[in-house]
Amino acid sequence: MYNYKDHLGNTRLSYTKNDAGTLEIVEESNYYPFGLTHKGYNSSVSSLGNSTAQLLKFGGKEQQDELGLDWIDITARNYDPALGRWMNLDPLAENMRRHSPYNYAFDNPIYYIDPDGMVSMAFDWINNGDGTYTAQAGDSAATLSEDAGISLEEADKIVQSQLGENYEGEDGEMKSDVEVGDVVAVPEQVENIKEEKDKEILDKISERKVEIQEQIRVEDSKENIEKLDNSIDSLSKEIKKSNKLFHSFKGMREISKLERGIDKGYKGAKAGYHDGMARTEGDSVRNVKKRKTLIKKRDSIKKSIAN
């Protein structure tokens, strides 16, 4: 026996081959949104049926006919379509604290399904984040229009051009040729997202370029600081040397004063020492000013790096 299912997984038609080798309908089932089976029409059941296979009804799950309860075993829990309620707690109740742990499809079976009793799912196209959408059970051009935020006319054009032309269903209505897992691209969104990603890439390149330029500037600044430090150290040594010479000449001048009554060359020596003192003092002053300028320049570069 074979079962024909609709887009939600509900068994709508059971059929098999009879003794003559032709197909024969065993049972037809139609459902209310919460899962109760319609009564009063198409109620004939062929004797060629399979009692076990015929228990697979709403959602393609097994109907429990024990004790006349007519519950449905939907994998994780037992479901009563007469009440539209689960008969067991939701295993994932902590993830949906706003809802009763016994509700079915958030009390909205027109929009949601619950194929395994764990969590309700909407007939939403999955947004892949790149302007493309992946179809789930029950999706069509109409649901694409809602999920992608585009007009129904545009959605229908996209579905027909990318997945195939619409077809006439058994109810005489035109339907989208959409199957679970089909992927469609919304051209405008694909282009916009591509432009955004390209802009992000360009922005990152620009940022990286600025970072590299800053690194080069810092490295150059560090090199300049090192050169300035060496120049400052060299000037400090020169200043120290000039100070030592200055004090040496000063000492020699004082000694010459003591020898003025003994050494006839006293006046010449004194003048020489005085000249030496003036020269070394001048060198020291110039070097101090030069060193001060270099220190100021070095500190300025350091400050620019810190900022």
Explain what you see:
Helices cover 43% and strands 15% of the residues. The chain is an alpha+beta fold and 307 residues long. The chain has three domains: 122 residues, no CATH class; 63 residues, Membrane-bound Lytic Murein Transglycosylase D, Chain A; 102 residues. A four-stranded antiparallel sheet has the order 4-5-6-7, with no helix packed on it. Strands 1-2-3 form a three-stranded antiparallel sheet, with no helix packed on it. Helix 1 crosses helix 2 and helix 3 runs antiparallel to helix 4.
The rounded distance between the terminal residues' Cα atoms is 80 Å
| DSSP strand tally | 14
Q: Topology as H/E string?
A: EEEEEEEEEEEHHEEEHH
Roughly what fraction of the amino acids lie in strands? 5-15%
How does the major sheet shape up?
4 strands, antiparallel
What is the topology, as strand order, of the major beta sheet? 4-5-6-7
Percent helix, as a range, is 40-55%
The figure for the number of domains is 3
Cα shape: rod-shaped
Continuous helix count: 4
Determine the mean pLDDT.
83
The radius of gyration computed from the alpha-carbon positions, rounded to a whole number of angstroms, is 47 Å
Helix/strand-derived category reads alpha+beta
Low-confidence stretches: none
What keywords describe this structure?
307 residues, alpha+beta, Membrane-bound Lytic Murein Transglycosylase D, Chain A, 4-stranded antiparallel sheet, 4 helices
Summarize this, please?
By secondary structure, the chain is α+β, with helices and mostly antiparallel strands. The chain is built from 4 helices and 14 strands.
